[in-house]
Amino acid sequence: MASMISDFDESAHRLPEPKRKKLRKIETVNQDQAKNNQIRWRSLAEQQIYSSKLVEALRHSRRETSPATISTRSRAVRETADKILAIAAKGRTRWSRAILSSRLKQRLKNHKKAKAKSKTAAAGYSRPTNPAIGVQKKKLPALRQRTRVLGRLVPGCRKLSLPNLLEEATDYIAALEMQVRAMAALADFLTGFNAGASNLAESSNRLEMS
Question: Domain range spanning residue 190?
Answer without folding.
Answer: 43-113+162-210
